[in-house]
Amino acid sequence: MTPSQTLPWIEALMLESTTKPRSFQEIILRLQAYWAQKGCAILQPYDMEVGAGTFHPATTLRSLGSQPWAAAYVQPSRRPTDGRYGENPNRLQHYYQYQVLIKPSPPDLQELYLGSLRAIGIDDALHDIRFVEDDWESPTLGAWGLGWEVWCDGMEVSQFTYFQQVGGHDCKPVSGELTYGLERLAMYVLGVDHVMEMPFNDPEAPIALSYGDVFRQTEQEYSRWNFDQAETAMLLQHFEDAEAECQRILDAPHDDPTTSKRIIMVHPAYDQCIKASHLFNLLDARGVISVTERQAYIGRVRALAKLCADAFVQTEAGGWAA
Amino acid sequence: MPDVLIELFSEEIPARMQRRAAEDLRKLVTDGLVDGGLTYAHARAYSTPRRLTLAIEGLSEQSPTLREERKGPKVAAPEKAIEGFLRSTGLTLEQLEQREDKKGAFYLATIEKPGRAAPVILAEVLESAIRNFPWPKSMRWGAGSLRWVRPLHSILCVMTRDDGTEVVPFELDGITAGDTTRGHRFMAPDEIKVTGFEDYAAKLKRAFVVLDAEERAASIAHDIETRAFALGLELVEDSGLLAEVSGLVEWPVVLVGEIEEQFLDLPPEVLQTSMREHQKFFSLRDPKDGRIVRFVTVANRDTADQGATILRGNQKVLAARLADAKFFWENDLRVIANVGLSGMAEGLTNVTFHNKLGSQKARIDRISALAREIAPLVEADPDLAEQAAQIAKADLQSAMVGEFPELQGTMGVYYARAAGLPDAVANACKAHYQPLGPSDDVPSDPISVAVALADKIDTLTGFWAINEKPTGSKDPFALRRAALGVIRLVVTNALRLSLYERAFLALAKHVGHLAAEEDFAPVRPAIEALRGQVNDDVLQAFAAQFEDEKIRARELDKAPTEARPDVALGLSLAQDLLTFLHDRLKVYLRDQGIRHDVIDACLAMPGNDDLTLLVKRARALSELLKTADGPNLLQGFKRANSILTQAEENDGVEYSFGADVKYAETDEEHTLFAALDSAEAAITPAMQAEDFAAAMHAMAGLRAPIDAFFEAVQINTDSQVLRRNRLNLLSRIRTICGGVADFTKLDG
């Protein structure tokens, strides 16, 4: 993608990249402005519990098929086992990822990425930025790709991946995926040692809020629920239900009797797949899944992801032509 | 003769793949050029994180013209045949020659293949090299179909002659070869035009790229040493890390950073693992107390603030990691204080070792029982050996090993000491995994040896019992390493044990465990039938094992099912495992310069599952064969053996007894009789004492008398009495030599 002329409304948002951002939200806003300027559709977070930005259908499903795509968004992500009651300086059960997906991957994706670091105040003349081998694999999504962790002064600030397969399908063309761990990146840029101390809005705002003001209590509540209280029998049942529903809707005839149109219900089915994945994570945090069962559960989620991928490539958005 | 410069410029190549890839590029291209009929004087490949480079000197300008003569049909052949021949050669009738042979006149075609220009061949070879490059993993990008390790951006391919530089015309999936490259990603990102290798290397250096990985490594090593020396510290040598780091940077800049005081009391292995595995930091230690007090990071650029920002960032990341490690360390110590190591190990009941071989806990119980049995053989206290085996893997449940799996065993030692266990027990936590490879240390403390041996025998017999043996290059459970471990533990510590019996007993337990639901009653006749193949104690232990299983099966009210020949299975698996161990032993001894035929000659002797005895014998025999007497004695033996074998075949009798000195006619016969008597007198006690060196020495003394005997004495005389006596005398040579090793297996 070649940088287009700066749009006026974005110009208003784009801050001098030589100034340091002052808050968590400013980093998010600058990333949004930067990727909007580079031509991405700025999407909103997916309204379901997911483990990572990759689960958003804008990545998982849109990386399939031949249609071009360019999207960027913030995705709240949940990893129940990482909960630390808000006490660990770096670990949270709920955190934010910034996700960019461009298909086909542009030849200057590395340069675009480095530009985004400059936009949030990381000056590569002073910092040591490195692309260190890291092959990405998601056993639950049946997906893998090659790429790097990006290091800034020895710290991993992003994951950079060229998708090769998703849901068992070869990615043609290949999507380039960028994932920023927002809290960690922001803590580094803002020079904060404990996530809860990080300014969420501007520190000089009349009502200045820290990350802890927003999330300390929720981290405690969810940590307790995730580890000790979540009703496992119910979660197990929900898992079974989500799995069954996903399969059932994909088995339904493609032709809709109400509209007489061909409507494959991929997204509703994929919602159930995401749900099953998150329920598995919750069960895992409750410690009720043994080592041997683990693989079996992951395999069941992967099977759903594969069904959804198979169905998506038969839809218009997936490149299907009647 | 032109020189060639090739550069494949891409996004960052994984460090671990760079060197191999540079070599592959050199080989693929130069082999291709030679196959295409070109010659070259010299070729060298280089790699950096973003480029593979190949410099070829003295390439020939073109491939030679090739002439091929092809015999065609007879001149009188039907027109169709001649037309076909013309078509296949691409010639006209006028261009054919006529020749004569004894069958008559025939056509001869001379096909000329003109030589091709080097750039044409080079372009073909390079395209094929890129398309068929053996990356361990490769990928596609964008909308293209080309595969490379990461997106390939540009190709530089030029030929340099005295009169200038020529770009080799070449295009690959939209990438056109040119004469430009780029410097350092951040410090000199602009295009650079080059004329040849010298120019290229020099311009790259000005653009902050050190092309040669060796040079980068040497400069890193040198800078670290200088900095360490100035601080009065020493580098913890780490050649693997040095190679990796030199593949992560094009412009290495060494920076030394501090480790916060609060972390300096962590075990040095923890510091080093956090630093090395996660951050690729080197460690500097204080030579006075061996503590690690500084880290070294290698940045990829110069900065205006002399790396201050970079160092601050790295220090912060390290502090966060070490804070985690400190949390795990303190947490683990608290768990041990509360519930002890055995409490920590409890969770291993729920950890599957292998789905057919049960949990880690079940495995630990088997190893404990085995360690107890082995303990007396290594002069270890059986109680302590069992205790050590019970806690040796407890650290697998610790938070620290959960986070840093490579610290398994190492943490065990710290935690066992913290639990107040004696050093000999604690050390087994680490030592029982050893030796981890052919160059790793072999434990020598008796308790560690007992547990290490038990661990490896359990692993080998377990996977043998479920038929998961290594095949070809596939050895997912590292059984070859385990076998070499058994060999080195036994041989280095001069342990005396019958591995066949040990393997058999352990296999019996595995087979029994695996078949716990079967009825074992009909096994007894099979045991009886096999009596004599292994000794009674072993059979009884085996029978008892099955008796237990039978009782258990009955208690569980399992219906008896069909009988299976378990004993035979156990025996054949044990034999198979022993053969595997012998194969590994051959490799091990061959690496020590002992010939395979020497090993075969010793393997043919009884007691070959006692590896200490076997190796002692092989070493002594190998030494004997290195002396002047050895090969001559072997010749003498072979001659005696072949005469004797032939005579025995012809006569249909065995000459094995009754050589009598009174029938000796010549001095040489008398001398041989006397020499055999004295050799026997020396060899018999030496063999009883297993002093193979002495036995071999005594045997070597036979060489001269045997030589003299064959020189002077005719075996096949008319006198049957004399002939028989001499054959019986030869038989004594065969017996004496054969008692030490199977000389018939030796080459020469």
The span between the termini of chain B is: 51 Å
Shape of chain A: globular
Could you describe the largest sheet of chain B, including whether it forms a barrel? 5 strands, antiparallel
What is Rg of chain A?
A: 20 Å
Q: Which CATH architecture of the largest domain in chain A?
A: 2-Layer Sandwich
Low-confidence stretches of chain A at least 5 residues in length (pLDDT < 50)? none
Assembly of the depicted chains: heterodimer
Q: What would you call the structural class of chain A?
A: alpha+beta
Number of strands of chain A: 11
Kindly give the count of domains of chain A. 2
CATH superfamily of the largest domain in chain A: Bira Bifunctional Protein, Domain 2
What about the largest sheet of chain A?
9 strands, mixed
Mean pLDDT of chain B: 88
Walk me through this protein's architecture.
Chain A is α+β, with helices and mostly antiparallel strands and 322 residues long. Chain A folds into 2 domains: 217 residues, BirA Bifunctional Protein, domain 2; 82 residues, Class II aaRS and biotin synthetases, domain 2 (Methane Monooxygenase Hydroxylase, Chain G, domain 1), CATH 1.20.58. In chain A, strands 1, 2, 3, 4, 5, 6, 7, 8 and 9 form a 9-stranded mixed β-sheet that branches. A two-stranded antiparallel sheet of chain A has the order 10-11. In chain A, helix 7 runs antiparallel to helix 8. Chain A is globular. Chain B folds into 5 domains: 150 residues, no CATH class; 47 residues, no CATH class; 120 residues, no CATH class; 159 residues, no CATH class; 128 residues, Isoleucyl-tRNA Synthetase, Domain 1. Chain B has 26 helices and 18 strands. Helices cover 52% and strands 13% of the residues of chain B. Chain B is flat and about 100 Å long. In chain B, the strands form 6 sheets. A 5-stranded antiparallel β-sheet of chain B has the order 2-3-1-7-8, with helices on one face. By secondary structure, chain B is an alpha+beta fold. At the A-B interface, strand 4, strand 6 and strand 7 of A face helix 8 of B.
